[in-house]
Amino acid sequence: MSLESFIRAMPKAELHIHLEGSIRPHTLLQLAQRNGVELPFSDEAGLREYYRFTDFAHFIEVWYVINKALQTAADFTLITYELGKEAAEQHTRYMEVTFTPTTTVERLGISYDDLLAAINLGADRAQQEFGVIMRWINDADRARDPELTLTTEQWAAAAQDRGVVALGLGGFEPDGPPAEFATAFAMGRKDGLHCIPHQGEYAGPESIWQAIRLLHAERIGHGIHAAEDPALMEYLKQHGIALEICPTSNVCTRVVDKLADHPIRTLFAAGVPVTLNSDDPAMFNTTLTDEYLLAAQHFGFSADQLAQISLNAVRYSFQPETDKQRMIAEFEAEFEKLRAEHL
Ligand SMILES: [Zn+2]
User: Fold this and answer.
1) Annotated catalytic, 201?
2) 1, pLDDT greater than 80
3) Of these residues, 86, 96, 201, 244, which one is catalytic?
4) Tell me, what CATH number does 112's domain have?
5) Is the pLDDT of residue 282 over 70?
């Protein structure tokens, strides 16, 4: 028995994962073929090759290309169901999944409500069959007109009865600094949405301060550049603003040169609430379990520390407080049992 088997069996929750970046390679190829969409690859080996990113901008470009394989509402039902199934296989019990609705609504001419209904159909099936719970973060692309963020906010605010919990902001940070989105996020807050921008993934610590001050970010997507600013790390710790850390993603999109340079240890040691996430697992050839294994193998995290990180994902989730407390108690009981069995 070993730390590895403990990690594989441990209960998990994930707060930073994109639906469109989670499409199984086999499914992506099948959908493209069925929908008559030409992609720049024709098999899984070609796809793996295509998923070699030269920089962050290239990653975004590829993200848009693979989105084209998704053509119908039923395609979204399928990829959501499969995401839930794969998560359950890793003992993931709860996920807050990001999708970017304006991109799809514009491209396919289906309504937001129909898109969300299709996604919820897949999630409901996955929950019934595998017990995994999925909630939604609606992401706006910061490279586009900030007006689209206002549209996203309106859709998300009206869909809180259908699993939407938060407004997100993604894309290439230099294209859209936080200030441009202050109005949309203020509306989101007023409407009861949580606020989770990607920030400090590519841009420096000052951009994270802006996301906190101007957008009132409650968690930060990535936020790795906080490690360069001790005062910021202290602020994140004091105010319980968790970082959604995605180590493999950061290396694949080349915002970090190599794994050894990743600041997760610095952030954790400073007491910043850290969570582990897979971001776009299919595009980065990773899984949530792989991220935990990597944290153990490359960064020396112990079983207890990894259990703490897993509990952080529950603690900093946007579940109702009673559900959260119940899940924390369940996880703690399981960790105790798994420690005895595996360590
Ligand atoms: Zn992301």
Assistant:
1) yes
2) no
3) 201
4) 3.20.20.140
5) yes
